[in-house]
């Protein structure tokens, strides 16, 4: 039963005084006795997937503004009930007009540690990054969009690490299927089409120094050669078929080709690559995972 003294209406003229604000319950900063469950540290607590437009640098000096999904977390010590959750977003917004690249995350993470009185912090910015792609033979151009995330971590010692995640889509023509098809043609004059499939390499690279997304994409293109195409006329389709003939690959080959390419890149400290061939022969996928695995790096 609601007390008859309580009013059911919203007062649009009501303003909040300092005294009133001070009287508001502040549960997250309450005593440890309010903690539910084990009174232990929490490694990451914060906000996932808040969105805003952010600026990123292009290699030509231009900036591009992209819708970005942000995950921001801090560590919480034992004995503390909760974090001041809104500060994850409010502190981030202080940087909203800046240009974002992996090293920039260090500043935001420092700010998180300061504003949320926390020892460790984590940040991940996810966005779709467009790069213009030229068709193979017809001279047309179209935008290829790459799923990208830049990630930064800061541990309790204040050590900063930065990462880029990139998904690179390519076609993989099966070398075994090619040989079997040739065999059928030669021995029995039977038309036969080897299978190939849309494939994706999920890269995580830890950086020694800054690298443009364009450079990372170029490494993938140089390693795999058969990136999926945007603009395709008949002459491009034929070129793509020849390209796939020239660069056939098993999922193991894809992983090792990328390893060879990234291993020589000095700006990259460590990497993990997961290649997924979404088989057209099978109803399941063929997968490989390879990592450089330097000491204290990724595994
Ligand atoms: N810690 C915590 N807060 C939550 C959660 N879900 C919602 N919130 C709310 O997040 C709101 C904002 O938190 P604060 O940043 O502490 O807000 P504030 O105390 O007005 O802001 P400051 O002036 O920075 O102290 C609070 O009203 C919380 O109830 C949760 O799971 N954990």
Can you tag this structure with a few keywords?
8 strands, 8-stranded antiparallel sheet, binds guanosine-5'-triphosphate, alpha+beta, Urate Oxidase
Number of domains: 1
Annotated CATH topology = Urate Oxidase
**Beta-strand percentage range:** 25-35%
- Helix and strand run: HEEHHEEEHEHHHEE
Ligand types:
guanosine-5'-triphosphate
Number of helices: 7
- Report the span from N to C terminus: 59 Å
State the CATH class: Alpha Beta
Query: Main β-sheet, in a few words?
Result: 8 strands, antiparallel
The second-level CATH architecture is Roll
How many β-strands, per DSSP?
A: 8
InterPro entries: GTP_cyclohydrolase_FolE2, GTP_cyclohydrolase_FolE2/MptA
Keywords: Hydrolase
Function: Converts GTP to 7,8-dihydroneopterin triphosphate.
Organism: Fodinibius halophilus
Short structural description:
It comes from Fodinibius halophilus. The chain is an alpha+beta fold and 299 residues long.
């Amino acid at each position: 039963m609601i007390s008859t003294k309580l009013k059911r209406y919203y007062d649009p003229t009501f303003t909040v005084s300092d005294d009133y604000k001070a009287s508001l319950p502040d549960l997250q900063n309450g005593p440890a006795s309010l903690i539910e469950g084990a009174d232990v540290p929490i490694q990451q607590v914060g906000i996932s997937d808040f969105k805003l437009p952010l600026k990123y640098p292009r290699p030509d000096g231009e900036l591009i503004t992209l819708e970005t999904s942000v995950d921001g977390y801090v560590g919480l010590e034992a004995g503390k009930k909760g974090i001041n959750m809104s500060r994850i977003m409010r502190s981030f917004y202080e940087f909203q007009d800046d240009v974002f690249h992996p090293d920039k995350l260090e500043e935001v993470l420092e700010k998180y540690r300061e504003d949320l009185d926390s020892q460790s912090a984590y940040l991940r910015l996810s966005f779709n990054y467009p790069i213009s792609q030229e068709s193979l033979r017809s001279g047309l151009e179209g935008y290829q969009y790459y799923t990208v995330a830049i990630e930064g971590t800061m541990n309790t010692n204040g050590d900063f690490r930065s990462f880029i995640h990139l998904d690179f889509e390519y076609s993989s023509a099966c070398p075994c299927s090619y040989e079997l098809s040739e065999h059928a043609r030669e021995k029995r004059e039977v038309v036969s089409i080897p299978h190939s499939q849309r494939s994706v390499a999920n890269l995580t690279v830890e950086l020694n120094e800054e690298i443009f997304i364009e450079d990372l994409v170029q490494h993938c293109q140089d390693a795999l050669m058969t990136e999926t195409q945007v603009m395709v006329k008949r002459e491009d389709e034929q070129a793509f078929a020849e390209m796939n003939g020239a660069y056939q690959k098993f999922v193991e080959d894809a992983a090792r080709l990328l390893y060879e390419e990234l291993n020589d890149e000095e700006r990259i400290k460590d990497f993990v690559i997961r290649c997924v061939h979404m088989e057209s022969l099978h109803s399941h996928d063929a997968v490989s995972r390879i990592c450089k695995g330097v000491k204290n790096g990724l595994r």
